[in-house]
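Fill in residues.
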């Protein structure tokens, strides 16, 4: 089976690509990625020469190119992760998010529809990877379920909500076989150091301030990235067409508590006296439209598909910190921009 994974050079995508390439030697995995600032083929060096893996550099917003790919490879499965993914960037440049997350997703959907040809007996499937941010913000209590109304607050979440709506609409209108998952905050190795956890790890290493937005009393539900990849595998193979599944860590942390835990673990790993890293905490101007709390009710995926997180937060955070500390070159290449120069030379 030819499976197209978009955004496979990014954070979550690289874990999904690796899992599929290693677990399914009878599949051929095509990783389509534009290698934006967030795409890094260093994330996949260990599998780049596997016979069932092909990397294709390309942009999902280029319609003729995407159509020709589907014409050539007749993908039977699509797992769509490519996106602009950082909320702060979406506040500065919303249109970039519309282009990739909305228009790019539409171009993929149309190409898949053409390739599927309305054959309701085929096993082909379009899997759209989305986020819990489409549901907006929770108050102090309650959980997001699959039926929580959409109420996005940032240009990023609005663009993801828009693409989710189009996927659903194609399911209703053309009976296109699809599944959608909405996942909470991921963390783990290979995450670009603009997101909270890797940014703060990098800043602690270099004794730089830790910019906590507002009063730090914002809550997120954290999931180890490899557990997300396992859930994606499960939904891709066992999920029911036309369904949405929420994926979450059942692991809520207020930002400030998480940052203090991170500081404690970093002091331990770096052999610094207790309390050293906490002194770097600096409260800064809040993110505009900052969602107070996200928390997922993951009972549907647990009851119907038997998935639950396998890694506790303490274990996952320790693994993550150890990975960043023993891969300082990865961090250096990413923060200096070196990784882009290298791969730009290789791929046009
Ligand atoms: P990321 O920013 O690390 O990676 C995105 C990847 O997409 C990069 O490799 C980038 O080069 C590629 N890309 C961007 N624009 C492209 C384009 N026009 N054409 C082709 N490739 C393009 O993102 P991530 O954190 O790994 O998130 C992956 C997906 O999961 C996204 O759809 C995101 O909305 C969703 N998601 C992320 C989280 C999270 O916590 N990170 C949680 C839930 C859902
Ligand atoms: O919930 C899923 C979403 O999680 C994904 O869809 C997004 O792609 C992903 O980026 C993430 O969004 P968040 O905005 O929650 O993640 P981020 O790491 O940017 O921020 C986490 C929290 O930490 C949030 O409340 C903002 C805060 N923060 C973030 C940064 C970068 C700070 O206080 N300081 C910072 O410097």
């Amino acid at each position: 089976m030819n499976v197209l994974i978009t955004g496979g050079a990014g954070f979550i995508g690289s874990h999904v690509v690796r899992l599929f390439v290693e677990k399914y030697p009878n599949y051929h995995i095509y990783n389509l990625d534009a290698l934006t600032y967030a795409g890094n083929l260093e994330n996949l060096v260990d599998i780049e020469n596997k016979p069932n893996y092909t990397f294709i550099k390309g942009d999902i917003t280029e319609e003729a190119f995407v159509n020709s790919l589907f014409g050539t490879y007749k993908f039977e499965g699509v797992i769509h992760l490519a996106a602009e993914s950082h909320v702060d960037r979406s506040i500065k440049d919303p249109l970039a998010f519309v282009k990739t997350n909305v228009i790019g997703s539409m171009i993929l959907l149309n190409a898949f529809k053409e390739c599927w040809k309305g054959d309701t007996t085929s096993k082909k499937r379009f899997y759209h990877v989305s986020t819990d941010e489409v549901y907006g913000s929770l108050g102090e209590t309650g959980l997001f379920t699959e039926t929580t109304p959409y109420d996005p607050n940032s240009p990023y979440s609005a663009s993801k909500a828009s693409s989710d709506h189009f996927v659903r609409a194609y399911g209703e209108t053309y009976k296109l076989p699809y599944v959608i998952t909405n996942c909470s905050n991921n963390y783990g190795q290979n995450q670009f150091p603009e997101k909270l956890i890797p940014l703060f790890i990098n800043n602690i290493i270099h004794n730089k301030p830790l910019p906590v937005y507002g009063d730090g009393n914002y809550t997120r539900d954290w999931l180890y990235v490899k557990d997300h990849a396992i859930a994606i595998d499960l939904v891709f193979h066992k999920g029911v067409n036309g369904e949405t599944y929420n994926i979450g860590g059942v692991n809520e942390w207020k930002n400030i508590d998480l940052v203090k835990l991170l500081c404690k673990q970093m002091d331990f790993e770096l052999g610094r006296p207790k309390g050293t890293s906490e002194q770097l905490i600096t409260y800064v101007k809040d993110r505009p439209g900052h969602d107070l709390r996200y928390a997922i009710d993951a009972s549907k995926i647990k009851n119907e598909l038997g998935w639950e997180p396998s890694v506790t937060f303490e274990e996952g955070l320790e693994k993550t910190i150890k990975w960043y500390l023993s891969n300082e070159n990865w961090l250096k290449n990413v923060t200096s921009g070196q990784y882009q120069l290298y791969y730009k030379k290789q791929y046009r």
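The CA atoms of residues 71 and 103 lie 20 Å apart.
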